């Protein structure tokens, strides 16, 4: 099994990057929240992750595809209709 440990400094920078990218919080607020997390106060970090989760869900919902429609569309395209077959030159027919 691989070791998944991350140094405290590396974790700080990763969290900083994530929170700066996905939240609208000020840099100082993010730094204070990460420092509090490193001291064991997790509420601020959980709040940020909740906010990030909601943004990801909203983005997903905006592009979510109706899987049933997609499958039916692909299946229908796999079948050749008589009209399409008539358009194919006689030499190419099987």
Secondary-structure map:
Blueprint: H1 8-22, H2 27-38, H3 43-63, H4 67-78, H5 82-87
Throw out a few tags for this protein.
single chain, 94 residues, mainly alpha, 70% helix, 0% strand
Task: Give your account of this protein's structure.
With 94 residues, the chain is mainly alpha-helical. It contains 5 helices and no strands. It has helices spanning 8-22, 27-38, 43-63, 67-78, 82-87. Helix 1 packs antiparallel against helix 2. The model has no long low-confidence stretch (mean pLDDT 79).
Helix content: over 70%
In angstroms, what separates the terminal alpha carbons? 55 Å
**Integer average pLDDT:** 79
Strand content: under 5%
Give a nutshell description of this structure.
Helix content is 70%, strand content 0%. The chain has 94 residues and is mostly helical.
